[in-house]
Recover the amino acids of this structure.
């Protein structure tokens, strides 16, 4: 390693205060600068931040946007989730591969361009999509792929690749992206007009306890999927003992098929930051962190601008909006490609500069969260609801939706429908109504809540979107009657295998075993007993796993076993005589015969 | 004195101290709950999930879940025993465990648990992973084929030895134990007398030139099943 490179790494570390807690920022910056984190680079970082070398390696090796080997100045990450595959990303991939002369996971001979696969990047309504470094390219065709490669090869900077501009703030100079919002159905809570400060003014006129009571009266529940009552969460954090308290917004929208938070961040960031500030006031915090998934780096400058505007307007900083003694500011923490970091304790680990391993509970974040201090972690949409509740009142909010599920819900609808995009619907809306709005002509199965949720069959399309029935973080993927549903299940299992942190046995090993047996059945080699095997194994993984990822990872298999059992039954064959019907003695012996030269 | 708490394990009343985990309280009461990643003197980790119990009906790792007054813990019930069996079998197929010629045989906690559960052969297919060996150190070798990722070496090195010799790298099926040096164990400050070396429950970290010294019949788990020391308290 030459002196200049060493100096660059040292400089980056010092820029982040040589603080281990800033490890994510340091590693991201080093990755961007050097194209990889390995060898002596790790030693220099370790020395600068006074950490053991292996601790740095531990964090760096966890995140998929950080590389343990050299990558090009430009990394093209093509999204390979099921929706992109339905939109024939394979053809786009072949075009990239052919033009670059490399396969996936490889770098061009001149060391300039790397080609990789990546899971859902939150663009399922405009698939196929790719990240070119942090630029988002959507609706890709083979022509686009060839044009992108030609432009890059001609020396054009990746951020100057020619493209159209999207609508709304996507066209703003600080975003300058071709991403489109696709707000198909705006509702009263999230997408109505918003005046910065409107909710905050009302909140600051109350005591923190009164603000929390408003959340309870409004019956606000977490929008990330679990549905925990927000008022209760805030109360726990409010009453917990701590030197300092933190508010973290979970903008690590990683559930495949979800993209509604991306649209909020693009068009209603003010509402979100207002919600965070109100949460800060309610729980007694002076510091907020927006944990933004690495895939949404293109939104960062836009979000920084809005934070800046709010500081200038006195809505952030010391004595917020003139309220003596209430200081609150927000910083952005970038992620680096890890689905598990959407789990709140894994997200906290990541904010602390560690591997994104979930933490043991208890203690819960409300008691000991970020840096061991009481912390409230809320979803983007939840915080927006909180701001709106303070603006318009708890009674106004709870007039929408149902008794157990007050308010509206954002749905990200994609797949086999004519109008993919974001829909703000009242809780209680039936799935069939959503399919009608999205103009799904031939829906044969709907994956509600992403791979961790449930694959719903047509007989259940009259079920309602609510916490008591079809609870969802917002991902709705529609599949028509021509889709290979068990193939989709296999894709989902691959996703969980890749995204498991590997901490606990059932999730780390169990998902690999589930996938093995599913593959066996799909290849026509399965027997009826294999269905019982999948059921039992799936239940063990669900029951014994340590966090929400493992506890939901068998769902693709378990929910299709329950709702689409005929698909499995059509593939398995019972044993006849001593051998399984699917066992071919000749082919099993063929390799040994060839080696022994027996005919 | 911390507050005294009463709860039940499989219907038997147990008295514990507030702040104890279910596993600690059970150990003190002479009730054995199978475990691999948990070890006295090391901080609770909750990784292997072998100590899964139902606490008031909810699945929890006994090694991380604190006891509470009146808590009803179910341990030796068929549902829980099945989960433990499944996890032990998962650990066998995940690595490359050849007990018959492993130096740790007879002293291995994974093997001893399999015997205690009467596991003759796992129902899952072997995954036969390619794993790395590190024999660079003169006195110690690491055979990752036998590693069950319990993190005992990681914690013992930090918490008991005051070093940072081991840590996990990678994630999911690619997660593995790494050492605090780019090359190998010989470049770290590990010593053969470190607690981290003895902390390994399986044959993944072995002291060189000690294998097969104890004759069959006199090894730790040859005559009594694992957990007997707790049960005979």
């Amino acid at each position: 390693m030459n002196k200049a490179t060493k100096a660059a790494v040292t400089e980056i570390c010092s820029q982040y205060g040589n603080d281990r807690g800033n490890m994510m920022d340091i590693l991201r910056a080093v990755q961007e600068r050097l194209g990889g984190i390995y060898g002596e680079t790790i030693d220099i970082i370790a020395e600068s931040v006074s950490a053991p070398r292996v601790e740095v390696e531990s964090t760096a090796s966890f995140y998929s946007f950080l590389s343990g080997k050299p990558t090009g100045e430009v990394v093209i990450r093509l999204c390979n989730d099921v929706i992109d595959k339905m939109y024939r990303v394979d053809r786009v991939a072949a075009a990239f591969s052919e033009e670059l002369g490399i396969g996936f996971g490889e770098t061009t001979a001149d060391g300039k361009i790397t080609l990789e696969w990546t899971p859902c990047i939150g663009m399922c309504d405009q698939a196929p999509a790719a990240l070119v470094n942090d630029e988002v390219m959507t609706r890709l065709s083979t022509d686009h792929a060839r044009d992108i490669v030609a432009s890059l090869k001609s020396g054009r900077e990746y951020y100057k690749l020619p493209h159209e501009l999207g609508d709304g703030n996507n066209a703003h100079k600080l975003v300058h992206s071709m991403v489109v919002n696709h707000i198909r159905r705006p509702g009263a809570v999230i997408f109505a007009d918003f005046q910065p400060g409107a909710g905050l003014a009302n909140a600051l006129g109350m005591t923190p306890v009164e603000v929390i009571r408003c959340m309870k009266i409004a019956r606000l529940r977490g929008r990330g999927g679990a549905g925990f009552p927000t008022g209760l969460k805030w109360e726990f954090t409010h009453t917990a003992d701590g030197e300092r308290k933190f508010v973290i917004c979970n903008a690590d929208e990683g559930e495949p098929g979800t993209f509604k938070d991306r649209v909020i961040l693009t068009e209603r960031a003010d509402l979100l930051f207002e919600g965070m500030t109100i949460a800060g006031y309610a729980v007694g915090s002076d510091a907020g962190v927006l944990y933004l998934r690495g895939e949404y780096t293109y939104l960062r400058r836009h979000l920084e601008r809005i934070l800046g505007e709010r500081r200038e307007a006195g809505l952030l900083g010391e004595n917020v909006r003139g309220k003596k003694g209430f200081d609150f500011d927000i910083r952005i923490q970038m992620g680096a490609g890890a689905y598990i970091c959407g789990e709140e304790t894994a997200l906290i680990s990541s904010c602390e500069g560690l591997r994104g391993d979930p933490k043991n509970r208890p203690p819960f974040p409300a008691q000991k969260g970020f840096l061991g201090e009481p912390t409230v972690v809320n979803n983007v949409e939840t915080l927006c609801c909180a701001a709106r509740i303070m603006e318009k009142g708890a009674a106004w909010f709870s007039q929408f939706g149902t008794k157990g599920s007050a308010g509206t819900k954002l749905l990200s609808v994609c797949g086999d429908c004519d109008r993919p995009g974001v829909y703000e619907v009242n809780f209680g809306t039936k799935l069939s109504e959503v399919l009608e709005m999205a103009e799904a002509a031939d829906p044969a199965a709907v994956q509600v809540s992403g791979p961790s949720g449930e694959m719903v069959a047509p007989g259940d399309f009259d079920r309602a979107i609510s916490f008591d029935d079809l609870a969802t973080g917002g991902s709705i993927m529609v599949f028509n009657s021509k889709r290979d549903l068990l193939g989709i299940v296999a894709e989902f299992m691959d996703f969980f295998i890749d995204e498991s942190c590997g901490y606990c046995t059932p999730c780390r090993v169990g998902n690999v075993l589930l996938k093995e047996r599913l593959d066996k059945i799909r290849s026509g080699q399965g027997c009826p007993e294999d269905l019982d095997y999948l059921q039992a194994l799936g239940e063990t993984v669900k029951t014994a796993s340590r966090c929400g990822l493992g506890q939901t990872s068998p769902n693709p298999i378990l929910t299709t076993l329950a709702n689409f059992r005929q698909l499995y039954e059509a593939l398995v064959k019972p044993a006849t005589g001593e051998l399984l019907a699917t066992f071919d003695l000749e082919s099993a012996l063929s390799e040994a015969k060839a080696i022994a030269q027996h005919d | 004195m911390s507050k005294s708490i009463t709860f039940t394990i499989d219907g038997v009343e147990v008295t514990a101290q507030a702040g104890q985990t279910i596993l600690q309280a059970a150990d003190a009461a002479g009730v054995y709950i199978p475990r691999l990643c948990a070890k006295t003197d090391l901080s609770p980790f909750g990784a292997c999930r072998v100590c899964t119990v139902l606490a008031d009906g909810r699945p929890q790792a006994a090694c991380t879940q604190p006891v509470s007054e009146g808590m009803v813990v179910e341990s030796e019930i068929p549902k829980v025993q099945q989960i433990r069996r499944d996890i032990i079998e998962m650990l066998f197929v995940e690595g490359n465990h050849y007990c018959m010629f492993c130096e740790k045989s007879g002293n291995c906690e994974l093997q001893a648990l399999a015997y205690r559960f009467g596991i003759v052969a796992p129902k899952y297919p072997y995954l036969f992973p390619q794993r790395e060996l590190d024999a660079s150190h003169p006195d110690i070798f690491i055979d990752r084929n036998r590693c069950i990722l319990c993190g005992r070496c990681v914690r013992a090195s930090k918490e008991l030895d005051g070093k940072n010799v081991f840590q996990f790298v990678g994630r999911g099926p690619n997660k593995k134990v790494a050492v605090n040096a780019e090359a190998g164990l010989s470049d770290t400050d590990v010593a053969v007398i470190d607690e981290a070396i003895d902390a390994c429950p399986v044959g993944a970290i072995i002291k060189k030139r000690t294998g097969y010294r104890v004759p069959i019949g006199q090894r730790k788990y040859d005559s009594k099943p694992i957990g007997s020391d707790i049960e005979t308290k």
